[in-house]
Design brief:
Layout lengths: L1 E4 L20 E4 L10 E6 L3 E9 L10 H8 L4 E5 L11 H16 L8 E13 L1 H10 L11 E7 L27 E6 L18 H7 L4 E6 L15 H10 L7 H21 L6 H7 L8 E7 L4 H4 L1 H9 L11
Parallel strand pairs: 4-5, 4-6, 6-7, 7-8, 8-9
Antiparallel strand pairs: 1-2, 2-3, 3-5, 9-10
GO molecular function: chlorophyllase activity
GO biological process, one term: chlorophyll catabolic process
Protein name: Chlorophyllase
Length: 339
């Protein structure tokens, strides 16, 4: 069943346009056509065209449709967002969760098309990994080769939203994701953290400092970027009100929230992701909208702190992306300044 959401860009907004809805009208697809390995929540533009694909993994116990407002923001700027429900509540043991993620990735080339509007094509040469909290960990793990059957050279970028590594023996991957130092990734990474993720509201903080966004950013290789939404908590990126009771409880009750409106948080996360990916794929990462946000974080709807962007220093730093960029005809040599 599909639902259509019309784009309503706010032309008078003082912020950059990436922080507002884009020009594309989006549709939401929740059916299970072409037998996907896991239930899907797919948000796509309806206008004819070929669009990059973002594979987004939800947090523990969170429904994939609880991010619908964030997904619609991103998709309205010309992206297809695919979010699989890898499990219903608690993560499976060991690395099975990453294997599920790999199964979804392998399904995309043949299965995604039937879940998209007519005349809309998925550009899988621009396949982005993403996720929130535990889902961010799975995005990193998939890109690091934790799954048995997946091609690492098919990914173009990674955007992690307040990623959290396993904090108990039951939730650890094998080996622990944060035992990798550094992460040997072959593509650019953006990490968006929260300032209040480490604040305890219930028994333990939702994003403890020992396994939070800073640890993932530190281990990532250049080119990489880091943003922290100073006044927001771990779950504020979710919808204002989720139809899934478990997601609603997690969103409202489990984590420190902060005082700002959820909309500002979602617009900030969505805008950073859109600017990063659009400039990356257009070969303008060092001079485009993304760099404007890095240089002047005050343009974002939410207060940003600890903004950092480390560019690749030379061709050795690029590694595989240079070769892969040439194969795809994408000018990776133009993406970053060469010192």
């Amino acid at each position: 069943m599909a639902a259509v959401v019309e784009a309503k860009p706010n032309e008078s907004a003082a912020e950059l346009l990436v922080f507002n809805l884009g020009s594309h009208t989006t549709t939401v697809e929740t059916s299970n056509k072409s037998s996907p390995p896991k239930p899907m929540f797919i948000v796509s533009p309806i206008e004819q065209g070929s669009y990059p694909v973002i594979l987004f993994f939800p947090d523990t116990c969170i429904s994939n449709n609880a991010y619908s407002q964030l997904f619609q923001h991103i998709s309205s700027h010309g992206f297809i967002v695919v979010s699989p429900q890898l499990y219903s509540c608690m993560p499976p043991c060991g690395n099975n969760e990453v294997d599920f993620a790999a199964q979804v990735t392998n399904w995309l080339p043949k299965g995604l098309k039937s879940n998209l509007p007519e005349n809309v094509e998925a550009d899988l040469n621009k396949l982005v990994l993403s996720g929130h909290s535990r889902g961010g960990t799975i995005a990193f793990a998939l890109s690091l080769g934790y799954a048995c059957k997946t091609r690492l050279d098919q990914f173009s970028a990674l955007v992690a939203v307040d990623p959290v590594g396993g904090t108990t023996k039951c939730t650890e991957l094998n080996p622990s994701i944060l035992s990798n130092n550094p992460f040997n990734l072959s593509f650019p990474v953006t990490v968006i953290g929260t300032g209040l993720g480490g604040v305890t509201k219930c028994i333990i903080p939702c994003a403890p400092e020992s396994a939070n966004h800073e640890k993932f950013y530190e281990r990532s290789k250049a080119p990489k970027a880091h943003f922290v939404t100073k006044e927001y908590g771990h779950m504020v990126v979710l919808d204002d009100s989720s139809s899934n009771l478990r997601s609603w409880v997690m969103s409202k009750c489990m984590c420190a929230k902060g005082k700002g409106p959820r909309e500002a948080m979602r617009r900030t996360v969505g805008g950073i992701a859109v600017a990063f990916l659009k400039d990356l794929f257009s070969g303008n990462l060092k001079n485009g909208v993304f760099m404007k946000i890095v240089q002047d974080p005050s343009v974002a709807p939410a207060v940003l702190d600890d903004v950092d962007f480390v560019q690749a220093r030379n061709y050795v730093d690029f590694g595989l992306p240079v070769l892969w960029g040439k194969i795809q005809g994408r000018p990776f040599h133009d993406l970053y300044s060469i010192n």
